[in-house]
Amino acid sequence: MSLYMVGYTFIKKAIPLAVPFQWDTTFMVWDKALHGGRSSYQWLAPLLNHAPLTFFLNVTYNFWFLVMFCCWFWQGFERKDTALRQQFLLGFTLTWFLGTCVLGTIFFVGWPTFYGRLLTGPDPYVR
Fold first, then answer.
1. What sign has the CA pseudo-torsion 33, 100, 44, 21?
2. Which of 41, 93, 112, 116 has a beta carbon 3.0–4.6 Å from 123's, enabling a disulfide?
3. Non-local CB neighbours of 105 within 8 Å, separated by 6+ positions
4. Could you read off the pLDDT of 35-65 as tens digits, one per residue?
5. What is the pTM of this model?
């Protein structure tokens, strides 16, 4: 698992050297089209812009790391080498590779946080 994560992190950090930020504007346009001409944060900020709620959502979001590591350790160190265990480990590895390396490279974006720093022109996310 540690080796996987080091490899994926290395590849993910190298993506900007190979691929430009070309999807940010497209995703911004799609976001506004899906949300009635407004960015999704404009709909969500009035509901979620409260420190205790934001903290709770952050903890809940990051909980998946614990679940992921627990499942990986459970299957990685299981004494019985079953077909289901091998499927899990292969699926886990392929999911991280395809999701992080392949899709992350094809649809490389800086997202709203870095939009104004990475792309030329006005930053539509500045308040």
1. negative
2. 116
3. 15, 18, 19
4. 999 988 889 989 998 999 999 999 999 999 8
5. 0.73
